[in-house]
Write a structure and sequence with these properties.
Elements lengths: L1 H22 L3 E9 L2 E12 L2 E8 L3 E4 L1 E6 L2 E10 L2 E12 L2 E9 L8 E2 L3 E5 L2
Antiparallel strand pairs: 1-2, 1-10, 2-3, 3-4, 3-5, 5-6, 6-7, 7-8, 8-9, 8-10
């Protein structure tokens, strides 16, 4: 019986530690990303519950979009947004590594038009808004 209680206690402790780590990215982040006519400032607003990530990506060129399938697992973060341009929809997948007040992201467009038909874009860095 004591063994089961100890295992249960360890599981609870790991869940709490994972939640505490994931909660670190909650809040507002700013990305300066290259665009056709100079850099554009993208605002990321994150909400974390356990390892689940929700929020918005606000690009002044395309407007706000809800984060879908977001997750935070240790120092890894991922999510996607769906953008509609004309009659076309494209899924932009964001994947990053968290390091303190910075997140290094890569973005990949699935079924889209960025970079001549999709593909990965150069690494961009998000910084926590102060």
């Amino acid at each position: 019986m004591k063994g089961k209680i100890a295992v249960f206690g360890v599981v609870i402790l790991l869940a709490v530690l994972t939640s505490a780590w994931a909660a670190d990215v909650s809040g507002k982040w700013i990305v300066k990303a290259p665009a056709n006519q100079g850099d554009v400032e993208i605002t990321l607003n994150f909400k974390v519950a356990g390892t689940s990530l929700t929020g918005t990506v606000d690009n002044p060129q395309a407007g706000p979009a809800d984060i879908k399938d977001g997750s935070v697992n240790g120092d890894a973060i991922s999510f996607h947004v769906v953008r509609k341009i004309g009659d076309n929809e494209m899924k932009v997948v964001w994947k990053g590594k968290i390091a303190g007040d910075e997140i290094r992201f890569t973005r990949e467009v699935e079924g889209g038009m960025m970079g001549g038909g999709g593909g990965a874009t150069p690494e961009i860095i998000a910084r926590r808004a102060k």
